[in-house]
Amino acid sequence: MFRNQNIKSGYLEDSDLLFITPEYEAAFRNKRLRTGDLVTMRTGYPGVTAIVPAQYDQSQSFTTLITRPKKDAIDSLFLCHYINSEFGKKFFEQSQIGGAQKNVNASTLRGMPIPVPPRQEQLAIGLAISDLDALIAGLEKLIAKKRDLKQAAMQQLLTGQTRLPGFSGEWELRQLVQLGTFLKGSGVKRDEAMSGELPCVRYGEIYTVHSDVVRTFHSRISPQVAAKATRIQKGDLLFAGSGETKAEIGKCVAMALPMEAYAGGDIVILRLRSGNPSFFGYLLNTPAVVRQKSNLGQGDAVVHISALALSSIEVGVPSIEEQTAITTVLSDMDLALSALKDRLAKTRELKQGMMQVLLTGRTRLV
Question: Phi first, then psi: what are they for 191, rounded to 5°?
Fold first, then answer.
């Protein structure tokens, strides 16, 4: 039995299915799904629609909207793509009912205007868009696999479980207070984040747009705002000083760019005396360190971690040469991941552009 959470744009996610007994289902046999039916979310993300594949012919769905396209009128694949397109989304946005929990009903869906080309053109358009869907799905799986490989490499290389060729010997156990000096970020309100040209890191961005190492900036501040912020330099480690849960508190990113930049409030800065900053950016986000930070976090609704608490964290530190070698391996993985993410974003843009012109007849297939 399929529910809202099983419906994705264009396909059914079957990793979390419910199953009902044949005896109970028999009373609803007139509602059984057929191959080519469309199931549409009513709430949550109202309007998102999936097509029923052959392997789920005769399955059930009690809580979704079901559309059974007339075979001589419209192709299921074409109709599914149209409902999920920007045109379909705008229609649902204008037609949603309810307060905080928006929803759509059968009469709303029934009233959606659909531009219908000849049957053969419907089939061609549906297949062309589905080819891009398949490419997008493949890229998403590849990205997930590469991400898992990176996590495994971090776990092995950053704990000394696996050593790169040419390195041996024990790592030295050090507290963070022994590695450098702690500072505090300051200033930079949300409405000041794009006030100028000077690069800046805000604490919320450590959670949302930075991963292990600062590679680009998403906030730019004016000299006036920078005057009340804390200037950071290459080699600094930036910790998010507040967050929503203890499990994520103190996420770290390394400032490895040789340029003038600033840190906003709620950021704790560790200015290293020596060592490879990118190595420590990776190291301080490993599970063993995350557990230490979690135990040191204070608060419930909003969790905080101080420089004093961070200073007591213990990590194993190899030689600078091994730090650099490990960083090279992980950075290469990051570059490969970034290239795949860029390709995925461009493919999604291509799909949106293709849908925009093919589903309206602005561009016709040969």
Answer: -75, 0
**Residue 211 main-chain phi, psi, to 5 deg:** -135, 105
Superfamily designation of domain 172-317: DNA methylase specificity domains (3.90.220.20)
- Domain ranges for the chain, please list them: 4-115, 117-168+318-366, 172-317
- DSSP, collapsed to helix, strand or coil, labels residue 67 as strand
Domains 4-115 and 117-168+318-366 share a fold: no
> Are the CB atoms for 160 and 304 separated by under 8 Å?
no
Q: What is the pTM of this model?
A: 0.81
Q: pLDDT, tens digit, for every residue of 124-172?
A: 999 999 999 999 999 999 999 999 999 999 999 999 999 999 999 999 9
What contacts 182, CB < 8 A, 6 or more positions away?
268, 269, 270, 271, 307, 310, 311
Nearest to 112 by CA among 53, 67, 52, 61: 67
CA distance 238 to 207: 11
Q: Do β-strands 38-40 and 65-67 pair in parallel, antiparallel, or remain unpaired? A: antiparallel
Q: What is the spatial distance between Cα 291 and Cα 294, in angstroms, rounded to a whole number?
A: 5
Average pLDDT over residues 43-56: 92
CATH of domain 117-168+318-366: 1.10.287.1120
Exposed, middle or buried by CB within 10 Å (0-12, 13-18, 19+), for 259?
A: exposed
Distance CA 272, CA 292 (A): 20
Looking at this protein, which amino acid is placed at residue 15?
S
b/e burial code for range 111-131 (CB count within 10 A of at least 16 → b): ebeeeebeeebbebbbeebbe
Q: C-alpha angle 99/102/103, rounded to 5°?
A: 130
Tokens 């970034």 appear where?
A: 338
- What's the CATH number for 4-115? 3.90.220.20
Other beta carbons less than 10 A from residue 255's beta carbon: 26
**In contact, 152 and 276? CB cutoff 8 Å:** no
Alpha helix stretches (DSSP H) within the chain: 22-26, 76-84, 86-95, 106-110, 119-157, 203-208, 223-226, 277-283, 287-296, 307-311, 320-358
- Spatial contact of 56 and 12, defined as CB atoms under 8 Å apart: yes
